[in-house]
């Protein structure tokens, strides 16, 4: 097949990957904005290279004409989580979405592959709009922890280096490492709630400070400057105390003051 034709075939796959990355990143942002813990730590994606598509097709004895139907990972999105428990949460989020239709799931988390590989795979149908109209694209979503991803990246590079024939002594080391990853993820699960609490309070603090600064900035336009400076100094004093309850109280009081000024400026506009 001509290279140009391949590019045309792969264009909607590229669009699907880009759109899905934007959507998952937006989901992360939404969690942050609401001061909620997000089960997604990082999202990446790629379209398989032509060489890799041909290689896989040859290995699986797939005709070129059947590639789009039978190769399910031409478009791939990878979602990295901090904790094993987050994987199930992400799977649920994907199952509930109406813009992705799950057509296959593979649980290599509870059913580790012989290589030691662990990850949760979901194949979804995702619709993109192209110049030629709408197209349903198959996308493979791989969901795994940071630790699983570390193992898989190293093992993938070794597969490449040894052309898929990794020597036995290295295989053994990789198996040991895979077991260590299981132990590490289990250990981390014990401290998950502690870490989530710490991250949550950090996010809540960041959102609170950002809301206060916004309110202060808006006050400059409508309130007496001397009074705003006084409120600002009070904010600095409370901020330095590093006490979330006091900061919360200050935020609520500032909301009431800002609301009062806004109401005043509206009534002045009306008269
Ligand atoms: P690449 O280079 O990442 O694209 P099947 O559905 O069983 O007929 P397939 O498509 O190989 O065959 O499915 P499987 O086993 O679920 O693998 C899909 C992808 O998962 C692979 O794509 C890898 O990305 C990843 N994967 C599966 N097994 C392993 C493994 O042992 N080690 C690592 N590092 N990754 C693995 P590709 O096309 O093989 O590779």
Summarize the topology:
Blueprint lengths: L2 H31 L8 E6 L2 H10 L7 H4 L4 E7 L2 H13 L3 E8 L12 E11 L2 E13 H16 L6 H23 L1 H31 L2 H17 L2 H27 L1
Parallel strand pairs: 2-5
Antiparallel strand pairs: 1-2, 3-4, 4-5
The structure holds ligand 0O2.
Written overview of the protein:
- By secondary structure, this protein is of the alpha+beta class.
- The chain folds into two domains: 3-175, Beta Polymerase, domain 2, CATH 3.30.460.10; 195-270, no CATH class.
- The chain has nine helices and five strands, in the order H-E-H-H-E-H-E-E-E-H-H-H-H-H.
- The chain has helices spanning 3-33, 50-59, 67-70, 84-96, 146-161, 168-190, 192-222, 225-241, 244-270, and strands at residues 42-47, 75-81, 100-107, 120-130, 133-145.
- Strand 4 (120-130) and strand 5 (133-145) form a beta hairpin.
- The termini are far apart.
- The mean pLDDT is 92.
- The site of ligand 0O2 has 12 residues, from helix 2 and helix 5.
Radius of gyration: 26 Å
Q: What average pLDDT do the residues reach?
A: 92
Bound molecules: ligand 0O2
Question: What is the CATH C level class of the largest domain, in words?
Answer: Alpha Beta
Query: How many helical elements?
Result: 9
Content of β-strand: 15-25%
Domains (count): 2
Give start-end ranges of low-pLDDT stretches: none
Bin the helical content. 55-70%
Task: Please identify which CATH superfamily of the largest domain we are dealing with.
Answer: Beta Polymerase, domain 2
């Amino acid at each position: 097949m001509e290279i140009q034709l391949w590019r045309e075939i792969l264009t909607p796959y590229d669009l699907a990957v880009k759109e899905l990355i934007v959507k998952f990143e937006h989901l992360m942002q939404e969690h942050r904005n609401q001061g909620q813990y997000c089960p997604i730590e990082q999202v990446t994606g790629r379209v398989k290279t032509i060489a890799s598509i041909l290689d896989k097709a040859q290995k699986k004895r797939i005709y070129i004409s059947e590639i789009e139907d039978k190769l399910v990972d031409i478009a791939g999105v990878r979602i990295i989580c901090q904790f094993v428990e987050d994987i199930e949460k992400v799977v649920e989020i994907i199952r509930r979405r109406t813009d992705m239709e799950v057509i296959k799931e593979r649980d290599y988390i509870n059913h580790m592959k012989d290589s030691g590989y662990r990850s949760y795979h979901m194949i979804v149908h995702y619709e993109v709009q192209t110049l030629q109209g709408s197209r349903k694209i198959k996308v493979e979503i791989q969901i795994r922890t940071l630790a699983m991803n570390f193992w898989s990246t190293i093992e993938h590079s070794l597969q490449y280096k040894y052309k898929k024939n990794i020597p036995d002594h290295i295989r053994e080391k990789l198996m040991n490492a895979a077991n260590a990853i299981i132990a590490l993820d289990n250990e981390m699960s014990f401290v998950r709630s502690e870490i989530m609490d710490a991250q949550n309070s950090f996010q809540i603090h960041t959102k609170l400070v950002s809301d206060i600064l916004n309110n202060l900035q808006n006050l400059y336009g409508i309130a007496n400057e001397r009074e705003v400076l006084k409120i600002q100094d009070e904010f600095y004093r409370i901020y330095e105390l590093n006490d979330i309850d006091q900061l919360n109280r200050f935020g609520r009081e500032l909301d009431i003051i800002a609301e009062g000024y806004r109401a005043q400026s509206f009534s002045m506009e009306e008269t």
